[in-house]
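hey so u asked for the seq, here:
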Amino acid sequence: MLRPQLLMIEDDQRLAEMVVAYLQQNGFEVRHVQTAQEGMQELQHPSSGHAYALLLLDLMLPDAFGLDVCRQIRALPGNIASLPIVMLTAKGDSMDKVLGLEIGADDYIAKPFEPRELLARLRSLLRRQQLAQTVPGKADDEHTLLRFGRLHINLHARTLSVDDRDCHITSYQFDLLSILAKSAGRVLSREQLMDAVKGETPDAFDRSIDVHIGRLRAAIEDDPKQPKRIITIRGAGYVFAKLQDI
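ran it, structure tokens below
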């Protein structure tokens, strides 16, 4: 069985060596590069011949800012644009985290970090990608295609379209949308959503779920400021509309 291929873009050689050794001991195949230029080249033309399953991206690189690299990746064609990205940074400020999530990162971990926590986050991202769940509701193609009027969600291919136009979102955001869509008509709290997506006890002060909801609305709503598909229920959470004519 092929081990998950992970790319790490990090200029701290000592940290990289520690992380690479630890992750390889725990089931990953890791390729490390030190610059954004090398990283972008490796992503588009993997030296192993296999596409990467995850990216660890440092915020401060010698030739680029990590957030700019993240933005460039999200603009690439094909499956690379939806590659799960975990930002690594010495900055632990909450605004840096929000900005990283806004740009398109799936997760964010501040240095110094516990290797076991990093491993748990990476495994969680992989599980969310690999889980193929049958779902209730209006679906076809063996319960993998959810249709809500002009909005189509293919759970198996992990694709999203509105009016047959492909919408590009992150892996985390796709999982979040899937959870909402599977529970269409039911109000889900922020805590329920974070627990379902991350599989861990949510931080009561973590508002990152709101950032991801905003990105989803930008992708699927005709007017993100007046959403009709993902509705905020003040004091309770969010609900995905069951309406089929929007």
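The two ends are 43 Å apart (CA to CA). Helices lie at 13-25, 36-44, 66-74, 94-103, 115-130, 171-182, 190-198, 208-220.
lmk if thats what u needed
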